[in-house]
Amino acid sequence: MRFTAPTSSDGVTEQLFTLSFTFGEIPGVLWTPDGAAGPRPLILMGHGGGLHKKAPGIVARAARLVAECGFAVAAVDAPAHGDRPRTEEHLRVIGELRTRMRTGGDMTAVLAELHTLLAGQSVPEWRAVLDALQDLGHVGAGPVGYWGMSLGCGLGVPFVAAEPRVRAAVLGLNGAETSAEAAARITVPVEFLVQWDDESVPRAASLALFDTFASAEKTLHANPGKHGEIPAFELDSTLRFFTRHLG
User: Fold this and answer.
1) Is the pLDDT of residue 215 over 90?
2) Which residues of 42-79 are buried (b: 16+ CB within 10 A; e: fewer)?
């Protein structure tokens, strides 16, 4: 794992990194409290479709998790996003998805295809990133949480199902068609967000995914609004959820 020089703002240190892996270079970013030393909880954050590791929503959530909770937070560019290259297969599926968005067509099957395609690469990548981060002295092998909406949920569900180090997850804005099989293997506490008027993910599909989680503790947060209109107060709930489960 290769880091750039750190920068600091409002008590939060940011370091960009690159990890070499089977599928090529994985670009990411790590946020920690200024002067951090010793192990601490780590939150892995998955960005939405068409976004990247430093999308404004990711940065804002990371800043509060670090500054208010003392956690470490990391995000990476998902395959075919941000600074990552795109294959012809990526371009084909993404092009079809954009066409259906533009014409108002049903996106369910194409989203499922895209998430399945990317998850085959992203799950082992996330596990490699987690290995490398936990080797750092100011992160360590503490408890791990995962946060991801939309694409971040579609790729996060199979990752959380496969990775026993993840002890709690905040997920949402995704449906059962893309990850039901993996969701049935998740038993850690889950907080799940649904936008009641989501134009991209049918409400029934979101509720079906929530119902599929095998977690003994799972909470559904449903708010009015479209896909990208998650209320700001949900971040307060995210902080409480991870503090409760990760310490």
Assistant:
1) yes
2) bbbbbbbbebbbbbebbbebbbbbbbebebbbbbbbbb
